[in-house]
Amino acid sequence: MNPRQACLACLEREPVALLEATLWLATEHDRSIDPAACLGQVHNLQREVSKRLPMLPLGELAQPLLRELNSQGFAQDEYHPLRPQAALMDKVLQRRRGQPLLLAIIALELAQRLSIPLEGVNFPGHFLLRVPGADHLLDPCGGRRLYPADCRELLARQYGPQMPLNAEHMRSATPRQMLQRLSRNLRQLHISNDNAMAALVDAERVMLLGPAQVNDYLSRANLYQQLECPQAERFDLEHALLLTDDPVQRLKLSERLAQLPSGKRSIH
């Protein structure tokens, strides 16, 4: 079983082995990673964290869990410009710095092992957590409580005041959605760091994990353009054209398609 197959197989387990899936995802980029050894680090972390949690009902331990992870050094990676290591689980476990989504996945893994109720929330721009039924969300980067006013402020910081908070932003995230979001994050980080081949690996995984969006096809088409694969680029541009409702974007896509060679060639 190759790393991609092992990653997807983790999603079929009961319960889903999400953190292990992220380790296999990282192994697609670095075959020297030993997922079993990384899971050993998580086991040691669980032991350290559990010793320091207060004696409270399980339903009240999510915030203390996040605070304890923060006291253990787990925090948002503030390096600018952000590098792919902020979204590769083996590096996050080693450095204790990463994107909010990676910190959330570590917290979800520990919560599952310790029977603490906790779920992911697919909030735009900054992944969040929630105790099921609670009236607030939790920031995986330290455990701060976020009420609706705080969520509006966070959204405004990410996208500007014109973007209203709505129910879609507060939906629980499935493991598959989290893995797809992580793949999109890595795709962008590899693009930003001028590694088109690594970005293509992530772009292809995005397509396997769930419904693809217009931007998913456009991102992969741009990578194929960089790699001089015009027929693969055409395939993605045509799919983006089918999905978009934006007339300006449709016009630009049509013009770009017209400029591509029509002859059939190998894409690799």
TrEMBL record:
Looking up Pfam families in the UniProt record yields: TPR_9 (PF13371), Transglut_core2 (PF13369)
Q: What is this protein called?
A: Tetratricopeptide repeat protein
Can you tell me which family this protein belongs to? Belongs to the UPF0162 family.
Residues in the signal sequence: none
Species? Pseudomonas farsensis
Limits of the Protein SirB1 N-terminal domain: 39-183
